From TrEMBL:
Record's protein name: Transporter, CPA2 family
GO molecular function: antiporter activity; monoatomic cation transmembrane transporter activity
Bilayer topology annotation: Multi-pass membrane protein
Transmembrane is among the record's keywords: yes
Organism ancestry: Bacteria, Pseudomonadati, Pseudomonadota, Gammaproteobacteria, Oceanospirillales
Major subcellular location class: membrane
TM segment ranges: 6-23, 30-48, 54-73, 85-107, 113-134, 146-165, 177-197, 217-234, 270-288, 294-317, 329-350, 356-374
GO cellular component: plasma membrane
Cellular compartments annotated: Membrane
Entry-linked InterPro entries: Cation/H_exchanger_TM, Na+/solute_symporter_sf, NAD(P)-bd_dom_sf, RCK_C, RCK_C_sf, RCK_N
Length: 652
């Protein structure tokens, strides 16, 4: 094994290379860390042959992760989750562990190994799930709260399992029930102590630290708080992560919360990377090649069973079906505390390294599949609900409804539009595919239909032939074009208003048949201009005239902008962005003496917005304008076309 400094350099270099490579391949960094761990571990190139020190260091990543999670929570929120934490949590652990125990016992495994496997597979990965929830800002969503509640109980259960495992290995130590009761008593005592300190002591200590006006002192204080709470729980024989979570939760209601979270994030992310590398080091490629069929079967069976079980339990507790199913998908994997449990079992002689390797390989495989499931959990959930459920009971618009406004999409913009239409006594009907949104809006008495607004039968069901206006309220130009095409096939004279983000697709949408296109970025710019002019005492009539003229000219003055260094060449759909670009004509430029009409700019979808000649500025110069040395042309168009015109202007 190399010396400590060489080992750190090797591990960091491997991690950096793996993360960059996986980013290029559009794969999550967790998989990169796992792969780097497999490569560096005993089963790979053997750079690290003893993983115990690595695992101890990496455990601090879990400490800081749980501390960050605690900052997102408060005591009232935790009490609100008590039904999930102490309802679905115990049932999930029990009903996952028992079938695993039974299957392994039927396969002639010793009872001790079956118990350990059942407990390990009942746990999910707090590190992966919570990190994803925090990154998405989804901790306080329905599925975020449900997932977190179950994970919290799993962490408590893991503490009890770790305490009872030595008793299982050495029954002479004492009664397991007394040991479990002692552990729970310690946890309650710890909770009360941290609550008192966090409520009355820590905020005052942080205020004193803040008065020092030193970033270094505040960062050290944040680290000290997380590590001190972890040290206290560790000294009491409990999980370090549990203490960090409780300390974070106590500080979650203070105004220092955001600063503390920002300070510890670099340490958290670095240590979590080391944690996942440590997990990868536990995997043996040779063992996987030998038992790959059992490992694949076990991983698939575990993920399907846990998903269905958690979804069923949350549904029985009254959670929405989408929340329950999405939580089940998120918690389907094995967990990091399962690795600790298996490793401890090996150290106590309860199982051999090959048996432990198979269990760890199954858990790692489920964790490797989890990032993709988390990324697509929303789409997968909706697909499953549409497949297994009846469509929501949203009756078609009756024949007496006419002259209504048809809203395609019922997100924030669609809902705001609906409210104002109702205030002005206009009937409106919305179309959306979000099942939860539909259920809530329907209960509130709003008229909303489940379906895809690009389909003819859905538009007909919403009464498009009797509608007076159709509004596309979501920002998706390609979807909007499909709706325009379908709507004009059904009702050619219907006026259609389309929302889009900017002017990138403005011309295409107008050509596709939109009566008006509202680019929200340009409208926001107009409103900012109008407010600025009003605050400069410009007469209201002139401001209103400016707004009307800008809209009549299709925001001509606002088209394009200078992107700077971070220039995106295309949008998410692959369509080229339009931009402004300045070209200075020197004496050697090939276009000197030619007119703008000679350049055939319209055919290349490029226009000259402005021509600057010494102190003179000409907006939208005519085609017969002759170009001279020293002229500065402001070109507007797609990136490649603008570059081609610039080359033609300068080089011929």
């Amino acid at each position: 094994m190399p010396d400590a400094l060489t080992l750190v350099v090797i591990l960091l270099a491997t991690a950096v290379f793996a993360v960059v490579l996986f980013r290029r391949l559009h794969l999550p960094p967790i998989l990169a860390y796992l792969g780097a761990g497999v490569l560096a571990g005993p089963g790979g190139l053997g750079w690290v042959d003893d993983t115990s020190g690595m695992q101890y260091l990496a455990e601090f990543g879990i400490v800081f992760l749980l501390f960050s999670l605690g900052l997102e929570f408060s005591i009232p929120r935790l009490l609100a989750l008590r039904r999930v934490v102490f309802g679905a949590g115990p049932l999930q652990v029990l009903l996952t562990g028992l079938p695993v125990l039974l299957i392994m016992w039927l396969l002639d495994f010793p009872l001790a190994i079956a118990l350990i496997a059942g407990g390990a597979f009942a746990l999910s990965s707090t590190a992966i799930v919570i990190r994803d929830l925090i990154a998405r800002g989804a901790v306080n969503t329905g599925y975020g709260r449900a997932s977190t509640g179950i994970l919290l109980f799993q962490d408590l259960a893991a503490v009890i399992m770790l305490v009872l495992l030595p008793v299982l290995a050495h029954p002479e130590i004492g009664d397991p029930f007394i040991t479990a009761g002692t552990t729970l008593g310690k946890a309650l005592l710890l909770f009360f102590g941290i609550y008192v300190i966090g409520k009355w002591v820590l905020p005052r200590a942080l205020e004193e630290t803040g008065r020092a006006r030193s970033d270094e002192v505040f960062v050290m204080t944040a680290l000290l708080l997380a590590l001190l709470a972890a040290w206290v729980t560790h000294a009491l024989g409990l999980s370090m992560a549990l203490g960090a979570f409780l300390a974070g939760m106590m500080l979650g209601e203070s105004h220092f919360r955001h600063q503390i979270e920002a300070d510890i994030r670099p340490f958290r992310d670095l240590l979590l990377g080391l944690f996942f590398m440590g997990v990868g080091m536990l995997v043996s490629p040779q063992l996987f090649a030998k038992h790959w069929y059992w490992i694949l079967l076990g991983a698939a069976a575990l993920m399907v069973f846990k998903s269905v079980l958690i979804a069923a339990l949350l549904t029985l507790l009254g959670e929405r079906k989408e929340t329950a199913l999405r939580s089940g998908i998120m918690l389907a994997q094995g967990g990091e505390f399962g690795f600790v449990l298996v490793t401890l079992a090996v150290s106590h002689g309860l199982m051999n390294s090959e048996q432990a390797g198979i269990l760890i390989s199954i858990a790692v495989l489920t964790m490797a599949a989890t990032p993709a499931l988390l990324e697509h959990s929303r789409t997968l959930t909706r697909h499953l609900l549409r497949r297994w459920e009846q469509e929501p009971d949203t009756p078609a618009v009756d024949e007496n409804t006419s002259g209504h406004v048809l809203l395609c999409g019922y997100g924030r913009v669609g809902q705001n539009l609906m409210r104002y239409l109702n205030r002005f006594h206009h009937q409106a009907v919305a179309i959306d595919t979000d099942l939860v949104r539909i259920q809530e809006a329907s209960q509130a008495g709003e008229r909303i239909i489940f379906g895809d607004a690009t389909r003819k039968e859905i538009l007909e069901r919403a009464g498009i032939h009797r509608a007076s206006l159709l509004v596309v309220t979501f920002d998706d130009a390609r979807q909007a074009e499909r709706i325009l095409h379908t709507a004009h096939q059904l009702c050619p004279d219907l006026r259609i208003l389309v929302r889009t983000r900017d002017d990138t697709h403005l011309d295409e949408l107008l050509q596709a048949g939109a009566a008006e296109v509202v680019p929200e970025v340009l409208e926001a710019s107009l409103m900012l201009v109008a407010h600025a002019l009003m605050m400069l005492d410009t007469p209201f009539g002139k401001v209103l005239a400016m707004l009307r003229q800008s809209r009549r000219e299709r925001y001509k003055l606002l088209h394009g902008y200078y992107h700077g260094e971070s220039l995106p060449t295309s949008d998410s759909a692959g369509n080229p962005y339009r931009l402004l670009h300045a070209v200075t004509l020197d004496e050697q430029a090939a276009c000197i003496g030619k007119t703008l009409g000679d350049l055939d700019l319209p055919a290349r979808k490029v226009e000259v917005q402005t021509l600057r000649r010494q102190e003179q500025t000409i907006h939208h110069p005519a085609a017969d304008q002759t170009l001279m040395a020293g002229d500065i042309l402001i070109l507007y168009g797609p990136l490649e076309a603008v570059e081609a015109i610039e080359e033609k202007l300068l080089g011929g």
